[in-house]
Design a protein that fits this description.
The protein has 12 helices and 35 strands. It is globular. By secondary structure, it is of the alpha+beta class. An 8-stranded mixed beta sheet has the order 28-29-31-30-32-33-34-35, with helices on both faces. A 4-stranded antiparallel beta sheet has the order 1-2-3-4, with no helix packed on it. It has a 4-stranded antiparallel beta sheet with strand order 5-6-7-8, with no helix packed on it. The protein has a domain of about 260 residues: Rossmann fold (3-Layer(aba) Sandwich).
């Protein structure tokens, strides 16, 4: 079998080493990381992180300088998805059941004792509004217990578990923000298509509306100035690209322009809590970049990058004194490593490689590329060519991202590296609607599902074929969520373009998608109608863009994977397309995992899915398979 697959790769134009040099095992790409999510304690003496135990990611705590660690949690059904310090001796963490996304908030002492569910409410989703870092025994949480469509804000006593209502949601607040003293003073209201910024001078008095805009533009609050009087905001009012401004809630005016970039939106501002200064802005062009305002923070970044040359270095966590930091250093060819840096001693200590079983020299570079769409838009993306390949006449996987109002970024991607290791080139593209490229590029996607958005993907295929990279007879398409929709749309509306497709928790019917959105998305329903289409007044548009109604066009083999408990893209989306194809005798493989939601979290389920994908692509593209 190995010999036959190697022969297929040679025929595909992929240079293959000796037959006894097997690619890395599939499990190497998709197993749980060695350790991840490192955070330093407020006093800088300990770190917490997530690491596998019984095949599930659990919380661990380790004293800096010691080799052993304490396992704080004992989850065996689901991974812990997030954790953080609350004081120096308490950990709080979030976990759901079976992928339902109704996260409960738990706490435990750093030695693993005293574990308790702080929000033990069935069918209720918990969000963290403010961890209140300066208070060890309290935090602000949002709960949709009273009304499943919106979140009320509570002050949670972490010792007693007592919940005290801070603010009841009137039914239209989508997000809340506190000042530096942890007081709830900003809210963002939405009626679905209009967004209002609300403000108050102190807790306990009514909010007042500062301004109202169409959802296409707006003022997004980032944090208060250090005297708690003004706001730093990311705004695209009267402009295409979002930029960072100082905003005065008393005059309702933008004041100083803090930072803008001519090519991309800027929505992130960094600051020092200890020194009370803004330090820099982060933005993404082809990759993550920084602009610094503060000499001390700039010097720190320069120092870290000199210690770890060739890697993208990010400060992920600092102690309260800001003299100790945890770092993450990675690139497109490695998931990277975590480091501890003592700034006073200028001492860098490596803590852990995230995936030491993936040798960097066996990973393929991810190259930033761009091409023109048929109507003249520049589409940015990333192309990964298998190592040892001459880059010509290759089997290719087109890999559109989910969202769709997100974007792909440069960096390590286990899926991409896995596919490249099997002799497949991978193209990821930020089609119109991808965020970060300004308002006009985003708005160009409205009501364009299956139309211009799909054309951008199709044009990427044609660009690869015209450039000689892709063998036009061996192009596949794979994606999840919206990317799964793009798979079905590609096979439906351009049936001769693809040799096969893999749809992962993807949308097949826009009517049932919009009908079954989670209750906590209800405030966004009208906006989604503006972006996708109104099922009452634009039925023809939605029907034309829904692959399930055009399944007769599909002739390429299809693999579908779905979580039974998915609250975003219900299982019915996959059921519909599978049933339609099976009625016509089309080759469709269907994998359903009963204990998963919107994507497979459990390690064994990921292995099953990617193993099926490997066999599928090997059969239809001639990629490697053991």
């Amino acid at each position: 079998m190995l010999f036959a697959s190697a022969m297929l790769l040679v025929m595909a134009g992929v240079t293959v080493a000796r037959a006894d040099e097997r690619p890395l095992p599939l499990e190497s790409f998709f197993r749980n990381p060695e350790k991840m999510g490192f955070q330093i304690s407020p006093d800088g003496t300990r770190i917490l992180y997530l690491a596998p135990w019984e095949r599930r990611l659990n919380v661990h705590v380790q004293t800096i300088g010691e080799d052993s660690a304490v396992r704080v949690t004992s989850a065996t059904e689901r991974d812990i998805i997030a954790c953080l310090w609350s004081g120096n001796d308490r950990i709080v963490y979030l976990q759901d059941k079976g992928g339902d996304e109704n996260y409960h908030l738990f706490s435990a002492k750093a030695d693993g004792s005293g574990a308790r569910d702080l929000t033990p409410f069935d069918g209720v989703r918990t969000t963290i509004v403010d961890p209140l870092e300066e208070k060890d025994d309290e935090m602000l949480v949002g709960l949709n217990r009273r009304d499943p469509t919106v979140f009320d804000v509570y002050r949670l006593n972490l010792d007693s578990g007592e919940l005290s209502l801070v603010e009841e949601n009137p039914g239209d607040i989508g997000s809340w923000m506190t000042d530096h003293d942890g007081k709830l003073r900003v809210a963002v209201k939405s009626d679905g298509v209009n967004t209002s910024l609300l403000y108050r001078e102190r807790e306990g008095i009514p909010f007042r509306t500062l301004l109202t805009t169409d959802f296409r533009e707006g003022v997004s609050p980032l944090f208060f100035t250090f005297d708690n009087k003004k706001l730093y905001v990311s705004s695209n009012l009267g402009r295409d690209k979002s930029a960072i401004f100082l905003f005065d809630p008393e005059t309702v005016k933008h004041e100083e322009l803090i930072f803008e970039h001519p090519e991309v939106d800027v929505g992130s501002l960094m600051y020092s809590k200890k020194r009370k200064v803004i330090t820099g802005a982060a933005f993404v062009t082809d990759r993550l970049k920084y602009h610094f305002f503060d000499d001390e923070r700039r010097a720190l970044q320069d120092e870290l990058e000199s210690l770890l040359p060739g890697y993208q270095v990010r400060v992920s966590s600092m102690n309260r004194d800001e003299d100790k930091a945890l770092l993450r250093a990675n690139s497109d060819r490695t998931a990277g490593a975590y480091y501890f840096y003592d700034m006073a001693k200028k001492k860098l200590t490596k803590l852990e490689d995230v995936a030491p079983w993936l040798p960097e020299d066996k990973m393929a570079p991810m190259k930033a590329v761009s091409y023109k769409s048929r109507d003249g838009l520049t589409i940015h993306g990333y192309l990964t060519i298998p190592l040892g390949s001459d880059g010509k006449n290759l089997p290719v996987v087109i890999h559109p991202h989910g969202g769709p109002w997100l974007r792909d970024v440069w960096g390590f991607d286990a899926e991409v590296q896995f596919l490249a290791s099997r002799g497949l080139a991978v193209l990821q593209m930020n089609f119109r609607g991808s965020t970060g490229y300004g308002r006009a590029f985003w708005e160009a996607s409205f009501k364009q599902w299956g139309r211009a958005m799909q054309d951008d993907i199709t044009d990427g295929v044609k660009w690869l074929v015209d450039s000689g990279v892709a063998d036009p007879k061996r192009v596949a398409i794979y994606g999840g969520s919206y990317g799964g929709y793009a798979v079905l749309a590609g096979l439906t509306f351009t049936p001769d373009l693809y040799a096969c497709g893999v749809d992962y928790v993807g949308v097949s019917n826009l009517f049932t998608l919009l009908e079954a959105i989670p209750p906590y998305w209800e405030l966004e329903r009208k906006m989604m109608y503006e972006q996708i289409g109104d099922p009452e007044t634009e039925q023809d548009l939605l029907r034309a863009a829904s692959p399930v109604f055009h399944a007769d066009n599909i002739k390429a083999p299809l693999l579908v994977a779905q979580g039974a408990n998915d609250p975003r893209v219900k299982k019915a989306e996959s059921d519909q397309i599978v049933e339609a194809l099976k009625k016509r005798g089309i080759d469709v493989e269907y994998m359903v995992k009963e204990n998963e939601g919107h994507g497979f979290l459990n390690e064994e389920n990921r292995f099953d899915f990617y193993r099926a994908m490997e066999r599928f692509f090997s059969k239809h593209l001639g990629s490697y398979s053991e």
